[in-house]
Design brief:
Chain A: Keywords: 4Fe-4S, Iron, Iron-sulfur, Metal-binding. Chain A: This is NADH-quinone oxidoreductase subunit F. Chain A: Pfam families: Complex1_51K, NADH_4Fe-4S, SLBB. Chain A: Belongs to the complex I 51 kDa subunit family. The structure holds two protein chains of two kinds. By secondary structure, chain A is an alpha/beta fold. Chain A is 45% helix and 14% strand. In chain A, α2 packs across α9 and α13 runs antiparallel to α14. Chain A is globular. Chain B is an alpha/beta fold. Chain B folds into three domains: 89 residues, Ubiquitin-like (UB roll) (Roll); 77 residues, Alpha-Beta Plaits (2-Layer Sandwich), CATH 3.30.70; 352 residues, Rossmann fold, CATH 3.40.50. Classes of the chains: A alpha/beta, B alpha/beta.
């Protein structure tokens, strides 16, 4: 039974970027109108009722974040839409930007209004270059129709949006590295505190939200938080965009209510496994997420159920690997990704990846020893505990979970153990 | 004040203090590598991680204390993580420690000892690094030892404003190299060597001339003489475990004699000569409407900087060669004539607190009638190494005096080694020459000390002369911008490339504490106050040198031998 929803995705395939009038006919900008009409307290209340948690991966309650942001005082403040969707296996933000760009811009405008910013940025990853002009066009049309620019909807609220292009670095998804990159510097994370909410772009308070989060804000303020909160479970409220990929028959972006089981997602929505093979493992939340062995397939897709088993929603990616896939090969590809994307600034991430690559290489060739396996676990823990930013802290997650759930397979390449 | 608990001990520190500083207060030494007390907090190396109230790790160098905070620096989790980070560094660090420039004086070695690293499981020691840069005469960068802490780039950018180094590439290829993957000599590097002084390991060091000097000494055809810069005598003792600021002139002379130098002379003598030339040049500029302010030219790091960053201001520079080069010029001419030795048979060595002096000695214009003024330059650190290599017990060796005639120097020459010294020495002479009166008080206190830009005014014959003393190239830039904007009313400006002047030079022993420079500086003023002659124009050998050989100060012969030219080196 396919239980996909059309809440956040309500406008998908209903208009093209040139057709802003169709977006408006669909009820577009109603969220912004409601926000401007009813004020900031109303917005925060609605966000709290909706239970919205940031959809970029960290899952921090948006109402709380925005309410905190409102209290920051500065002459100039900025808001930012983080469209540097770099998590491998994650592509749901791209779908939102392609199929409903106005909703994202609307969410960003609401964010600007709440935060007290006159200027917003949408930082789009370099690999989505095909989208840059499209978003610029959407911004221009929104301005021409009075939904962006000076004196929006006659309320006296001025708000403009600029498009920034990333330069192709995964670490720039991290807020402070993203801002370094916007300022023209190499994309490496900044020391915190201060957080970017206090001192971000050009040293000014900058509030950053993920694409999906902003789309949900616009949706919630249009339909009402109480209506949105009818979806999902008690603790994981609402719907979620997921990117389903790997060895499933129907990979793609779907909107689901929280609370479906992973089995339902994979078989009912994804159509099952290619070649009707068995599942070996999933990776949730993108390449920085844990490997989940098949035995957890009936876990409900909610924050609380996944966290209870040591997993997480993360970016909303669900990668499925069938029974024929090698865990070591998979880890090699994960490791290669992080080896390439580490900014190099801190020792655990830079040197940890260097050594992990060497050790994985030995595992793959079958020349690794038990000492190597111990070392790889030790390095993984140091990377997790000691790295400067989230990239290094999560780069070894897949490895650590592989050791937890698949050590027989990792060890099968080790001669000493084979001989036992 | 903030109250917190570190390792079960209560400690009270001012708001804004970092955990690492708070721990220091109760004598707990949290390991660190990228942290340097004179620099911005970087938080890169991650070896200072300690456990907070929630059992998570925080970087002690970058985390500020908060009320009621409970920190543990000694749990198994902390130790394992710190040691793990150290092992990761070592796994890609060239471990030829025994033949490393920093053997015995290396922060990484100290940590290995602390963590008993003998059983490093990752130790493969196959190092992936950028190729070594030893293509210039002053500074070697050995990337196989670099731990990527960024301290070199920090001092180059924030203190010296030279800013040739940057974090480049990402991932495992991350490194601090000159921008656009150039070699140092292809950049505007001024070779000041301040990067060496802050490097925690042996990844940057001076290019050594010790072998060249020893070969010359062994060559019976050569008459090998040596000069010692003012700042060397108050710092080299540190390499032999003497207190910073110990005055070791006698030990240095004695040691060098034993090594086999024919004559041991004092650069302070040509510091006096510089004062005469520079003083008369200043008088000439004041009276004949020359370019003012006149800026001193003794510091080769500074000269490299202005040639690279201020081509338009070169006319402000005094045309005087530095004392090192003046000594070289005199050694190959006056001295050669006196001894009846052909200049090609004289090998002149100088011992300098400076890495840029090696670059200066190699400049093509630094020659006298075609003979290089100076043949080899050793830094203070190399002097220490040279003496050690000869088995000399430096601290206890009997003291000897400099050789005549270039051993007689005034106190004014000695203070050249400290920021403000050249200015003070010049004022002593210029004042007395112009007013024909004796100064009542020879000390110009305003120009002493560690303040970055020092100012003073002197009344000479009813004219108020405004002067400035600047050290550190970051400060030099500020003054250059003022001059450029026409906002500067100084007549005379002293600029030294390194913080503190030569006592903080890039060739000096690595400072172990922040007070070290001040102690060296104080010692120079002690040497000055103990001298018989305290003004350069009263040095009897200088007077004789002009009578017998040079003629008029700032005259034709002096210009041929003792003055130089400059050109832009903007790349």
């Amino acid at each position: 039974m396919n239980r996909t929803q059309k809440v956040i995705t309500e406008n998908f395939n209903t208009y093209k970027v040139e057709q802003i009038d169709k977006y408006i006919e669909n009820g577009g900008f109603q969220g912004l109108k409601n926000a401007l009409e009813k004020g900031k307290d109303f917005i925060i209340d609605e966000l709290n009722i909706s239970g919205l948690r940031g959809r970029g991966g960290a899952a921090y309650p948006t109402g709380k974040k925005w309410n905190g942001g409102r209290q920051t005082h500065a002459d100039v403040k900025y808001v930012l839409c983080n469209a540097d969707e770099g998590e491998p296996a994650t592509f749901k933000d791209r779908e939102l930007l392609v199929k409903d760009p106005y909703k994202v811009l609307e969410g960003l405008a609401i964010s600007g209004y709440t935060f007290g910013a006159k200027e917003g940025f949408i930082y789009i990853r370099e690999e989505y270059e095909f989208l840059h002009d499209k978003i610029r066009k959407a911004i221009k049309l929104a301005e021409e129709n009075g939904y962006l620019g000076k004196n929006i909807l006659g309320t006296g609220f001025d708000f403009s949006i600029k498009v920034f292009s990333g330069a192709g670095a995964y670490v720039c998804g991290e807020g402070s590295a993203l801002i370094e990159s916007m300022e023209g510097k190499a994309g490496r994370p900044r020391m915190k505190p201060p957080r970017i909410g206090v001192a971000g772009y050009m040293g000014k308070p900058t509030q950053s939200n993920n694409v999906e989060t902003l789309a949900i804000v616009a949706t919630v303020l249009k339909m009402g938080a109480v209506n949105y909160a009818k979806y999902g479970t008690e603790k994981s409220i609402g719907t979620k965009m997921i990117s389903l990929c790997g060895n499933v028959k129907k990979p793609g972006t779907y909107e689901i209510p929280f609370g479906m089981s992973l089995r339902e997602i994979i078989y009912d929505i994804g159509g099952g496994i290619v070649g009707d093979k068995d599942i070996k493992f999933l990776q949730l939340g993108g390449v920085s997420g844990p490997l989940m062995p098949k035995k957890y397939i009936d876990t409900k897709y909610t924050y609380e159920d996944l966290e209870a088993e040591g997993f997480g929603i993360g970016s909303g990616a669900i990668l499925v690997a069938d029974e024929t896939k090698s865990v070591i090969k998979f880890l090699e590809s994960v490791s290669y990704f992080f080896f390439h994307e580490s900014c190099g600034k801190c020792t655990p991430c830079r040197e940890g990846k260097r050594q992990m690559k060497k050790l994985l290489d030995k595992m793959s060739k079958g020349t690794a020893t038990t000492k190597d396996l111990k070392n790889i676990e030790k390095i993984s823990r140091i990377m997790t505990d000691a790295s400067f930013c989230g990239l290094g802290q999560t780069a070894a997650t897949a490895m650590l979970t592989a050791i937890k759930y698949f050590s027989p397979e990792l060890c099968s390449s080790i001669d000493e153990i084979k001989a036992l | 004040m903030v109250n917190l608990i570190i390792d079960n001990k209560e400690v009270q520190v001012p708001k804004g203090t970092t955990i690492i500083e708070a721990a220091k207060k109760i004598h707990i030494k949290i390991p660190s590598l990228c942290h340097h007390p004179d620099q911005t907090v970087k938080g890169n190396c991650r070896i200072c991680l300690v456990e907070n109230d929630w059992g998570g790790l925080v970087a002690a160098c970058s985390t500020k204390v908060s009320e009621g905070m409970k920190i543990k620096t000694n749990t198994k989790f902390v130790r394992d993580t710190q040691k793990g980070v150290l092992e990761l560094i070592l796994a890609n660090h060239n471990q030829d420690c025994l033949k490393c420039d920093r053997n015995g004086n290396c922060e990484l070695q100290d940590l290995c000892e602390r963590f008993n690293i003998s059983n490093n499981s990752l130790d493969e020691n196959i190092v992936e690094a950028h190729e070594i840069d030893d293509f210039n005469c002053s500074i070697v960068r050995d990337y196989s030892k670099c731990i990527k802490c960024g301290r070199c780039a920090d001092v180059c950018r924030d203190v010296q404003n030279v800013d040739v180094l940057a974090a480049t590439n990402r991932g495992a290829e991350y490194e601090f190299i000159p921008r656009f993957d150039r070699k140092l000599h292809e950049t505007e590097c001024v070779f000041c060597g301040q990067c060496i002084k802050v490097c925690p390991v042996g990844a940057i060091y001076e290019k050594s001339s010790i072998d060249k000097v020893l070969t010359a000494i062994d060559d019976e055809q050569l008459h090998v003489i040596v000069q010692i810069a003012p700042a060397v005598r108050v710092s080299v003792g540190e390499l032999f475990n003497l207190e910073p600021g110990s005055i070791t002139e006698g030990q240095i002379v004695s040691s060098l004699k034993r090594i086999g130098f024919e004559k041991v002379f004092d650069t302070n003598f040509t510091a006096d000569l510089t004062i005469i030339e520079e003083g008369y040049e200043l008088i000439d500029r004041i009276t004949n409407g020359g370019k003012l302010p006149m800026i001193t030219s003794c510091s080769p790091g500074w000269i490299n900087y202005i040639e690279g960053h201020g081509e338009d201001l070169l006319e402000h520079l005094s045309t005087c060669k530095s004392p090192q080069q003046m000594f070289g010029a005199i050694s190959k001419t006056y001295y050669a004539e006196k001894l009846g030795i052909h200049p090609s048979k004289i090998f002149t060595v100088s011992i300098m607190p400076c890495t840029a002096k090696k670059f200066e000695a190699n400049r093509e214009e630094m020659n006298s009638y075609g003979f290089p003024d100076v043949d080899a330059v050793l830094t203070t650190r190399e002097l220490g190494r040279l003496i050690k290599s000869q088995g000399i017990d430096f601290a206890n060796v009997e003291e000897e005096e400099f050789d005549a005639p270039f051993g007689i120097a005034s106190g004014a020459g000695a203070i050249f080694g400290a920021s403000g010294g050249v200015m003070e020495a010049a004022l002593r002479s210029v004042y007395e020459i112009l007013t024909k009166e004796e100064l009542e008080k020879l000390e110009f206190e305003e120009v002493r000390g560690m303040h970055g830009i020092k100012e003073a005014a002197v009344n000479i014959n009813g004219n108020e002369i405004k002067i400035a003393v600047v050290h550190g190239l970051g400060n030099a830039k500020k003054v250059m911008e003022e001059i450029r904007a026409g906002k500067s009313d100084y007549t005379f400006v002293e600029i030294m490339g390194c913080t503190g002047g030569c006592i903080g030079g890039g060739g000096q022993p690595i400072e172990k504490t922040r007070e070290t420079k001040q102690k060296r500086m104080d010692a120079l003023y002690t040497i000055d106050s103990d001298k018989e002659h305290r003004s350069s124009h009263k040095n009897p050998t200088i007077i004789k040198l002009y009578e017998e050989f040079l003629g008029e100060p700032n005259g034709h012969k002096a210009h041929v031998l003792l003055h130089t030219t400059y050109k832009g080196r903007k790349l």
